[in-house]
Amino acid sequence: LSRGLGDVYKRQPQDHTRQMQVDFAFHTALVEAAHHKTLARVYAGLRSSLALARGFQPTLSQHPETRRQHRAILAALKDRDPERAAQAARLHIFHFRNLIVQSLAEATGV
């Protein structure tokens, strides 16, 4: 997971397609590491929607807050602290949701 996260951060900021591919690989590895069948099914079902949403935030992987959140999730996992990892993951999901809602509002003027 750490290597995958490092790969995201090494990408050139303008290489949005490759950033998204590596970011998805990182998130997929997180889901697989959870060994939670329901989570895996939900994530698999959301992937195409997430890819579409990422189109509104092509530089999300390079955003400092996203990087901080990814590091917080990994730190909690390394510390074997599932509650902290779950809380960090929730914060990351809500942050992503808020960015997408903001981007959609700006794009549509709503």
Structural topology:
Layout: H1 2-10, H2 16-34, H3 37-54, H4 64-78, H5 82-108
Keywords:
5 helices, mainly alpha, 110 residues, 80% helix
Helix tally equals 5
Beta-strand portion reads under 5%
- pLDDT < 50 runs, ≥5 residues: none
Structural class: mainly alpha
Q: Average pLDDT, to the nearest integer?
A: 82
Q: What is the number of E strands? A: 0
Task: Kindly provide the radius of gyration, computed on alpha-carbon positions and rounded to a whole number of angstroms.
Answer: 14 Å
Quick overview of this protein structure:
With 110 residues, this protein is mostly helical. The chain is 80% helix and 0% strand.
Structure description:
By secondary structure, the chain is an all-alpha fold. It is about 80% helix and about 0% strand. It is built from five helices and no strands. Helix 1 packs antiparallel against helix 2 and helix 2 packs antiparallel against helix 3. The longest helix is centred in the last third of the chain and has 27 residues. The model has no long low-confidence stretch (mean pLDDT about 80).
